[in-house]
Design a protein that fits this description.
alpha/beta; XdhC_Rossmann_dom; elongated; 438 residues; XdhC/CoxI family protein; Rossmann fold; 5-stranded antiparallel beta sheet; XdhC_CoxI
Length: 438
């Protein structure tokens, strides 16, 4: 549902408090147009905000949404491709979707909880937690819990989450209440802090046999259902950072390629004459300073987190060794360094001499990139970003260069050396800006 937040403030039915239903993709497999978490709003007057599939299933979803608003229940609809029925509602691309549809009114527990966060900065941290099991249709439960700061959310301390889980209606002592929230926290918080979308299934707080619960007037004896509680978690964090160390041709090619993947990119180099070049203007930040000192300062300031990526392209031991020594001590997503297999062996020797533990060295992606046969800076940038995607998704279809053998670069068919641009020569004024290597 986070995909709707930028447009929600200007949507007339939301502004007027009109009853709506929200349809959300909760599982997807195969080739599908949109990922889990994508939502579409349908008002009782038939107005629509958002899209789930680009047209394949929208008509059927709208019909179900109107029925949900009429009967007040929830629905779970499945859509796929049917080769037997040419007129069946489904996805022509061959994928499969499960779509959860639930009513959402204009109250403080429904759309009202979202409106104050609508239309804001799309990079602002925000998370939504919704209950989508059969119990989610209960009118006494909130429709959504809004988490303004996913990185610091403490599930065990959230009264709103306890209400969403229905703990208010159960005869639980303080210890059982806390255990239920801690069980939720163990699954919720990694998704929230990782900026990810996913389903969380929790065993009922009352256990398998059920626990007597209070009725509407506080009477005892109502046994709650024992089916799992299912939560849909959507979390959005600021852009993950990618730090490129090395103001050279390869850095110039990697900066825009990394931005295409959604990273906030910083280019850092110790040499002002190189880092100041216009070709690095696409970077979100350009820093001039010794790489290891810059990284240490950023980590101390709390601007490095578990999603941060570091790509070392300096190809110079006086930069690489202290920088990698610093980087390998951090809890980050990826550390990679460019170079030949010979320079990689020398780099490993240097890091071992510097006191880096062998288990830390196992985290180093060196030589960086997938084995695509890349030669030019642009091709190397594709190779590096390909490995970043593979590392992030866990895909193993291609071989990282660090796991291969033989020459990294080979000549194309015909044996002609490819044209590679080189660093422009420095004039005297630029050369005078070079720092002294001490």
């Amino acid at each position: 549902m986070l995909n709707l937040m930028p447009s929600l403030a200007g949507w007339r039915p939301a502004a007027s408090g009109e009853r709506c239903a929200v349809a959300t993709i909760i599982t997807a497999s195969g080739s599908v147009p949109r990922p889990p978490g994508t939502s579409m709003l349908v008002s009782e007057s038939g107005e629509i905000l958002g899209s789930l599939s680009g047209g394949c299933v929208e008509g059927a979803v709208v019909a179900s949404a109107l029925e949900v608003m009429a009967d007040g229940g929830t629905r779970l609809e499945a859509f796929g491709f049917s080769s037997e029925d040419a007129f069946a509602v489904g996805l022509t691309c061959g994928g499969e979707l499960e779509v959860h549809i639930q009513p959402l009114d204009g109250s403080a527990a429904g759309l009202g909880a979202l409106r104050k966060f609508a239309g804001g900065d799309p990079e602002r941290p925000l998370a939504l937690i919704r209950r989508i099991d059969a119990g989610s249709g209960k009118t006494e439960l909130p429709a959504v819990v809004v988490v303004p700061d996913p990185g610091s959310f403490r599930a065990a301390e959230s009264a709103e989450l306890a209400s969403l889980l229905g703990l208010d209606a159960l005869n639980l002592d303080a210890e059982a209440w806390r255990e239920a929230l801690l069980a939720a926290a163990a699954q919720l918080e990694p998704l929230l802090r990782g900026g990810r979308t996913g389903l969380v299934r929790l065993a009922p707080a009352q256990g398998c046999s059920g626990v007597p619960a209070r009725g509407a007037q506080g009477t005892e004896g109502v046994v709650q259902p024992t089916e799992p509680v299912t939560l849909l978690v959507e979390s959005r964090l600021p852009q993950a950072r990618l730090l490129v160390f090395g103001a050279n041709d390869f850095g110039a090619a990697l900066v825009p390629a990394a931005k295409l993947l959604g990273y906030r990119v910083t280019l850092c180099d110790a040499r002002p004459a190189f880092s100041a070049q216009e070709r690095f203007a696409a970077a979100d930040e350009v820093a001039t300073g010794w790489p290891h000192r810059y990284l240490a300062a950023e980590a101390a300031a709390g601007r490095i987190d578990s999603r941060t990526v570091i790509c070392v392209l300096t190809h110079d031991p006086k930069f690489d060794i202290p920088l990698l020594q610093e980087a390998l001590e951090l809890d980050i997503a990826f550390v990679g360094a460019m170079g030949s297999r010979r320079s990689h062996r020398q780099r490993i020797d240097g890091l071992l001499e510097a006191g880096v533990a062998p288990e830390r060295l196992a985290r180093l992606h060196s030589p960086i990139g997938l084995d695509l046969g890349a030669v030019t800076p642009a091709e190397v940038a594709v190779s590096i970003t390909a490995e970043l995607i593979a590392a992030r998704t866990g895909a193993a279809a291609c071989i990282p260069l660090r796991d291969g053998s033989g020459p990294i670069h080979s000549l194309p068919a015909g044996g002609t050396e490819p044209a590679i641009s080189h660093q422009p020569a420095l004039n005297k004024e630029q050369a005078s800006q070079e720092i002294a290597w001490t």
